[in-house]
Amino acid sequence: MRALERVRDGMRRDQVFGFLMPRGLPVLDTSHNTILYMEQVSVSFDGFKAINDLNLYVDAGELRCIIGPNGAGKTTMMDIVTGKTRPDTGQVWFGQSMNLLEMDEPQIANAGIGRKFQRPTVFEALTVFDNLELAMAGPRGVLHALNATLSGEQRDGIERVLSTIGLIDEQHQNAGQLSHGQKQWLEIGMLLMQKPKMLLIDEPVAGMTHQEMDRTGELLGSLAGEHTVIVVEHDMDFVRSIASKVTVLHQGSVLAEGNMDSVQSDPEVRRVYLGE
Fold first, then answer.
1. DSSP class of residue 199?
2. Under the phi-then-psi rule, with left for phi > 0, alpha for psi from -120 to 50, and beta for the rest, what region is 71?
């Protein structure tokens, strides 16, 4: 029996009638407390089923960790949510009213879904402050940034993000001078400047020192509530330190779900993931 076969009343996305949905890009509706619905999603590449009848539900404001062996479908799952990959079958909804399969990547980003890849991609020749300014929600482009004057509200927004990511003292340093962990935090800050509702974070602590890992755990924990945070990670000690709920993927579908203790004690998880 799959872990997600039990669907709560009022949770399923297909209970929202189509004629009630506004045209264009609707306002995010999480009135059922669920922000992400993936239902019966499958996708194949050259005959290999990367995602196989996946059912995944994530609550608004939740910090969810997703784990699984290599090839389990974790990256493909994130690709589908962000519009990079289109599934062969299934439904993917952001809240009650946004059909992500009818939106392209820029529309999905503008709707409030931000993604951070494993390798940090910051502008190393620019200062930390300038990186955050360029990432600010609103009109884009270097020419606009060069000619625009920041308002007090915008400066306050950057200062808040600098405080959140712990880089106030480094704000005038070039990003290239930061440590690996600091670059990861800066990129998370750049996503926060877009005011996302949901963040997809891919292996945030790879290559970090233990001290940086602890700080990253504190940072991600502080974002939950105001944001929904989905973390894909291989480091089990780190997952245990931050996760209240863990989803285990295997062969493109959900193998188990629950707190870390229940997941680690699951016989199937131990067999396919822990090698027992």
1. E
2. left
**Other CB atoms within 10 Å distance of the CB of residue 160:** 13
Residue (of 42, 4, 36, 66) closest to 252 by Cα position: 42
CA of residue 185 relative to chain centroid, distance: 14
By three-state DSSP, how is residue 240 classified? helix
pLDDT digits (tens, 9 = 90+) for 228-247: 999 999 898 999 999 989 99
Confidence of residue 194 (pLDDT cuts 50, 70, 90): very high
Q: Where are the domains of the chain?
A: 13-272
Query: Which is it for the CA torsion 83, 195, 254, 32, positive or negative?
Result: negative
| Range 13-272 has CATH code 3.40.50.300 | yes
pLDDT tens per residue across span 111-154:
999 999 877 789 999 999 999 999 986 554 444 555 567 888 89
